Amino acid sequence: MARIVLSLEYCGAAFEGWQTQRHGRTVQDCLTLAVDTIAGESVQLQCAGRTDTGVHAAVQIAHFDTQAERPASAWVRGVNAHLPDGVAVNWAQEVAEDFHARFSALGRRYRYVLLNRPVRSALLHGRVGWFHAPLDIDAMQAAMQYLLGEHNFSSFRAAQCQANSPVRVLREASVTQVGPWFVFDFAANAFLHHMIRNMVGALVYVGKGACSPEWLGELLAMRNRRRAPPTFMPDGLYLSGVEYPDRWNLPDGGRIIAPLFLPSGL
């Protein structure tokens, strides 16, 4: 029995998230079917981070166990031949049996790409978020400082979140602007369900002048999701990196951070 780890990317616009569903319209469902075809047997896939409906992955890590003996090229080109256009495996590698795509990860990174102009984008529909009113980057940058560190993130946790604890360590939080584009980057040991989309929604409230930067710290301390703004759209959210200990000898020393598509050369 061999344990194989895959690195893949996908556009989430055509899928109802990662997690398998009876109707089969998820990334896990189509990837499992493709891997089963190459392996000649049924496999069980585990991933580094479950993404929601409409959320993308510039890099997702998954593993499975198989009795099939195949070269790495079969797990890449062979599997890709059976995948829809919106999903692609980038590399495959055999790892020790105690590796786990989710539980071996030290941290995860997400990026949210937001278009800020009066008119939504037609060409990038489903690929970027959008907000019509002007945003103040200085106010949002000041507000993000309240999110850094170890906190109870209940104010940004979805009601259906299944995590045992709402406490997370947010190691990085930044926002940059180039023209009408705002790019939010977050890195943490792990994230709660809808946590990033809820934080982006709150930051947009600050950016449009509805709330002060200090309000974000107050909202965090409230630990009450009902006091926070609505969950922001999934379109601009990308899983952009997963980090593992060096002992696994994964590409880039386990710090797997994908070059991410950014509009207009950003």
From TrEMBL:
Ranges in a coiled coil: none
Keywords, alphabetical: Isomerase, tRNA processing
Pfam family, one: PseudoU_synth_1
Matching CDD domains: PseudoU_synth_EcTruA
Secretion signal span: none
Residues reported to bind substrate: Y110
EC number: 5.4.99.12
Its biological purpose: Formation of pseudouridine at positions 38, 39 and 40 in the anticodon stem and loop of transfer RNAs.
Family to which this protein belongs: Belongs to the tRNA pseudouridine synthase TruA family.
Protein known as: tRNA pseudouridine synthase A
Organism: Uliginosibacterium aquaticum
